[in-house]
Amino acid sequence: MVRIHTTFAIAAICACVSKPLPAGQTISIGTSDQGYLHHAVSLPDRGEGYQRLRPGEETRYGTATLIDAIERAAKAVAEAFPGGYPLRVGDLSNRRGGAHQRHLSHRSGRDADLAFYARDAGSMATDNGSWMRFDRYGLAVRKGHVFSFDEARNWHLVRTLVMDSRARVKWLFCSDDIKARLLRYAARNEPSPQAVFRATWVLHQPGRGDPHADHFHIRVGCDPAERTLGCQEQAPFWPWQSDMASKEQDHARVSASDRRLLGWLFAEEHPNQGRHVFRGSFGIAPQPSTIASSYVD
Fold it and tell me: CA 48, CA 178: separation in Å to the nearest integer?
């Protein structure tokens, strides 16, 4: 039965490829949970502003869009906050994509895990060499020591990714509590309303599976060329990615209610409220639930 299901899945993916794959061109084929990679790009073990959590391991491959986005964002944070510890990058995909030993997604080179930036008890930047799970107060405990969520550096990472026109960031999965902290920080410190608006949509806690209280899970979309070669992505299509502004996704163009959004951002605590951001703060029930409610790890 498993073999039959696998055969059908492979056949469905292959059916989406409308023409031969170009030699030497990196292509993500299929979806994040049922796909594979053609001519993958490798993320080096270290670069400016980042370091891989598992150096030397093979789950280091992705599309050029994903690899470049991570490298640009890590560099931007390092330049804005010199002297801090590097961004720790976890799993991407295998060289040819397909099933991942630790994830249900990460199959087509468009997913990666990014550890949160953290501070120690003295408010000094510290190395998050392992996944530290932060609670609603932005605190984590590891080996008897207390650490805090570094709102400034984590927000700079987020705003760099969502404002990067080449990155095509689809989602930044994280817990509701982490999202609330980031948006409150942004509301007080971010000069660009567009960055806050985009982050309000892109930051999201999955409806099922791990809430992602210990890392960001970045997922990038398909570029126009990849889509003609079998790359598939689900709704929503963000309006600021102009070629993705699908006519069937008009809900993504609805503006936020300033009063309701600001009230949510500045409230002291938001137990369980973050999951209602789409439905409550924007006054609509958009289609992103079709993907955000699925397992993303």
Answer: 25
> Tell me, what's the pLDDT at 170?
95
Q: Give how many domains the chain has, as a whole number.
A: 1
pTM of the complete model: 0.77
Burial track 243-275 (b if 16+ CB lie within 10 A, e otherwise): ebeeeebeebeeebeeeebeebbeeeebeeebb
Pair 76, 160: CB distance under 8 Å: yes
For residue 179, the domain's CATH number is 3.30.1380.10
Q: Is residue 143 part of a domain?
A: no
With respect to residue 51, please indicate whether it lies within any of the assigned structural domains.
yes
Q: Cα–Cα distance between 23 and 34 in angstroms, integer? A: 22
In a domain, 178, yes or no: yes
State the pairing for strand pair 118-119/87-89: unpaired
Kindly state the average pLDDT of the residues 143-164. Answer: 96
Contact 166, 203 (CB under 8 A): no
What tokens appear for 198 in the block? Answer: 């985009």
Domain interval for residue 175: 40-117+150-292
